[in-house]
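Annual report, structural modelling task.

Input specification for the zinc ion complex:
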Amino acid sequence: MSGAGSGAPGRRARPEWDVYFMDIAHVVKTRSNCSRRNVAAVIVKDRRIISTGYNGAPRGVRNCDEGGCPRCASSAPSGSGLMDCICSHAEENAITQAAYHGISTKDASIYVTLSPCLMCAKMIVNAGIREVVYDEEYSVTEQTRSLLAEAGVRLRRLVGYRRPHLVRDGDGGDGGACGCNG
Ligand SMILES: [Zn+2]
Ligand SMILES: [Zn+2]
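The model returned the following structure:
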């Protein structure tokens, strides 16, 4: 039965905007082709999605999980050999996809399943994005944090967020840090 004062029968609770966009980011993440880590980003302006991106090999290049990126296929420890990695990051792909279609990212927000690295933070600043909302925290954040703060870009973690149940454990491939899926 519908709850008190909820109007028409069968009407269900709608998610908050933050949850809605982060849920979509987690679905976008399932398209990632990086064998190392799966991450996605959704760029939002005036509560509308203007671009999405997931990490992986650049357009027209063999996918990372098909051997396209020697670094990702190697045993290089997490965070090392990044200059030899051909995989584009999710934020990078979301921003460049907006550029590809001629859409301004000025004053937008970006929802990311993992907090941004320093390179992406620089790109976010120069793309005119004003806010970063993230789910999981990447290990290297202090320099990124202060860069974004100095540039006036708001950074906030979506506290208490639970991933959508349609994104199963194992679909993420991002280290399994989150065990919240039922
Ligand atoms: Zn990769
Ligand atoms: Zn990055």
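The first strand starts at residue 40 and ends at 45.
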